[in-house]
Specification:
Elements: E1 10-17, H1 23-32, E2 39-43, E3 56-59, E4 63-66, E5 71-74, H2 80-85, E6 96-100, H3 107-117, E7 122-132, H4 136-142, H5 144-152, E8 156-160, H6 167-180, E9 185-188, H7 211-215, H8 221-229, E10 231-238, H9 244-254, E11 259-267, E12 276-282, E13 285-291, E14 300-307, H10 311-319
Parallel strand pairs: 1-6, 1-7, 2-5, 2-6, 7-8, 8-9
Antiparallel strand pairs: 3-4, 4-5, 10-14, 11-12, 11-14, 12-13
Length: 344
């Protein structure tokens, strides 16, 4: 059930945070632990990325090509749309685009720019905010408006450098994040080392075996295995229609914050005008669009991705969303309004 949504658009993930928070460290980690994806990266300058020269296949003023299949574009020589165009040509092998925002980029402006810039070939997947656990209080005091917006305009929060912070500092950071974004999906990290499947859509992984991956041995295998042990999924399906009111309550109040992503499609039967409802959750941001079933027997299929998920409890919450009266009307004369039509 992992490929239940087939996107034709290349997903974009934005990494934002203050100068020195660890954005580039996280980016470097993703590029070297990317599950075999080809990634296009948009950065302020090539000099910001510390990549082993042996991994560089070719370099121009505009583009840095890596042997892994990843490509970097510099905003020193291209605007954002031109940089994105470097990755979205017909026949491209790029699976994902990552934009590293400058340390003092305005989150509101960035969100607006992306809405105006991205087109039919790409989609905004998620926004990741990187925080420096050791220096967050000072950064937040010096740039309070941006600090607030970086927590408001985000899907995931990575609290980085937890090894350098005291217990009191770390708890203060957690409380600050919770105050601004109580539903924020939190990941704590040292040197940006995370399980990248939590912030990038794992269905984009084509699992190419590069020569480097085939011929080398990772001497940090035990550590990465430990990261992967926290990753968990739940696949759930129902041939019976769901109650749209119960699903709305489930999405708004009952999905735990250790669920980082969810996706799939849902059947609401006659209450849903016999349409196929495509559901996606990125962080705390849910989205539902619709399309026709196209001669497929209606059935709900959902996948939840996160860390240490209580699968029994989550399954029980989903079971409770099955409609006990699928032929009856919605309460109080409510009629389900169709959301936007799917453009996958």
């Amino acid at each position: 059930m992992s490929n239940i949504i087939q996107h034709n658009k290349i997903p974009i993930t934005v990494i934002q945070g203050f100068l020195g928070a660890g954005k580039t460290t996280l980016l470097n980690y993703i590029l070297t632990h990317n599950q075999g994806m080809n990634i296009g990266v948009v950065v302020n300058d090539f000099g910001d990325i510390n990549i082993d020269s042996e991994l560089v296949k070719s370099k121009t003023d505009k583009k840095l090509e890596l042997t892994s299949g990843c490509i970097c574009c510099s905003l020193q020589t291209l605007d954002l749309q031109e940089a994105i165009d470097q990755f979205t040509y017909p026949g491209t092998t790029i699976d994902y685009i990552i934009i590293e925002a400058s340390g003092l980029a305005e989150p509101r402006d960035l969100a607006m720019t992306l809405k105006q810039t991205i087109g039919v070939r790409v989609r905004l997947d998620g926004i990741v905010t990187v925080l420096d656990a050791h220096n967050l209080t000072k950064n937040a005091k010096d740039h309070s408006a941006i600090a607030r917006d970086q927590l408001l305009f985000t899907d995931f929060v990575i609290i980085n450098k937890v090894d350098l912070a005291s217990t009191e500092q770390l708890e203060e950071v957690r409380q600050m994040v919770s105050a601004f974004s109580p539903k924020a999906r939190l990941i704590e990290a040292v040197k940006g080392e995370i399980d990248v499947r939590l912030i990038l859509d794992k269905d984009q992984y084509k699992l190419r075996q590069t020569a480097k991956e085939t011929n080398s041995h990772d001497n940090t295998h035990d550590h990465h295995q430990h990261l992967h042990e926290q990753y968990s999924t739940l696949s759930w399906s129902s041939k019976k229609p769901l109650d749209p009111m119960k699903i709305q309550d489930f999405v708004n109040r009952k999905i735990p914050t250790n669920v980082y992503r969810a996706k799939g499609f849902m059947d609401f039967g006659t209450k849903g005008h016999m349409r196929k409802y495509i559901f996606q959750l990125v962080g705390a941001r849910p989205e539902i669009v619709w399309e026709n079933w196209k001669n497929i027997q209606p059935e709900t299929k959902l996948v939840f991705i996160g860390k240490d998920i209580d699968t029994s409890k989550l399954k029980a919450e989903l079971d409770a969303c099955i409609d006990p009266d699928p032929q009856g009307p919605l309460p109080d004369g409510i009629e389900l309004q169709l959301p936007q039509k799917a453009e996958l």
